[in-house]
Amino acid sequence: MRYVMLIVSDESLEEAASPEEAKAHEGEIWAWFERWDGHFGEGGAELQRVAHARTIRGGVVTDGPYVELKEVIGGIVFLETDTLDEAVAIAATWPGLKYPYVSVEVRGTVVR
């Protein structure tokens, strides 16, 4: 079955990392993808910062998500596993989860 990992974080805390910390974290992320190779569906993406986003609601376009929103989706990863439990077990190893401002939501996708 196909599941999606929604990677959520507080961008302001993420941006506080030093260049060395950011580079080390990026290496951890690439190692994570190598570890779980074979469990990824097509697609997935790191998203640009919310400063580059636009929201359309009721025909009105506004900058980014609502200002008071601290946590935003920073990326998505598609997983191909047999069960939700297996997808959750893989998602629970996401390197960013060592930071208190990062969370990962796992959902099954709907096939119609």
UniProtKB/TrEMBL annotation:
Domain YCII-related positions: 1-95
Xref: Pfam families: YCII (PF03795)
Domain of life per record: Bacteria
InterPro entries tied to this protein: Dimeric_a/b-barrel (IPR011008), YCII (IPR005545)
Gene3D superfamilies to which the protein is assigned, alphabetical: Dimeric alpha+beta barrel
Family, similarity comment: Belongs to the YciI family.
Name the record gives this protein: YCII-related domain-containing protein
Species, as recorded: Longispora fulva
Lineage of the organism: Bacteria, Bacillati, Actinomycetota, Actinomycetes, Micromonosporales
